[in-house]
Amino acid sequence: MISAKTFQAVEELVLSEFVFPDTLEDPEVFPTPEGWGVKEVDEDLAVEEVPEPPLSSLARVTKREHPEHEEQLWLVHRARRGARAAEVLAAEAGGEVKAWRLWARARALGRNSEPPVPLRGLPRPLRLEVEALLDGEAAFVEAVERNLRLVVAVAKRYLNKAPGAEMEALVAEGTLGLMRALDLFDPSLGHRFSTYAFYWIRQTITRHLSKNHLVYLPEEQ
Hints:
- There is one protein chain.
- By secondary structure, the protein is mainly alpha-helical.
- It has seven helices and no strands.
- The protein has helices at about 55-60, 70-90, 95-110, 125-145, 150-160, 165-185, 195-210.
- Helix 3 (about 95-110) crosses helix 4, helix 5 packs across helix 6 and helix 6 (about 165-185) packs across helix 7 (about 195-210).
- The protein starts with about 55 loop residues before the first helix and ends in a 9-residue tail after the last helix.
């Protein structure tokens, strides 16, 4: 089973509890945060107030609206610009590309982290690259979170095909595929990101199932 630590972009809160949509087209109905802890009761009945449970972790994440095509492209553009900035920083300031991206991703998630190279004293062009990197990883994290509905929908299709498969493991693997799709997607080819991401999400999930459960998974028609 994949630990939540495997993918640092979506944090541990993604895997704690799941509320799944039946399809991508049918919107989920979530309880509103207003009024938690206050439950309407008959005034004539002396019933102690019962607190409402908070939104589940995945429900809080997937509550974010799925991006439209143009917004999806804008998020991808910013993420690609950030990835290029990481390469420039690694080449001219030192450190590894992966280390720069993980540092910026941690910052996007609100975590304290030391950069691969001290930022003090960097020339202005490189400081601009740092800003582009931070913006790019923030867009990367947002794109992952806002496309989690697609991961959940694909994972549900395969849940019953492998006895013993666990939903959190399928979602974890699918999220890795989504992250891979974000790194490789090229908007200039004219494809929709959702179509491209679906391919990579399905690839990682089916690879996980065939490797860990040894079941036959027929090709999608």
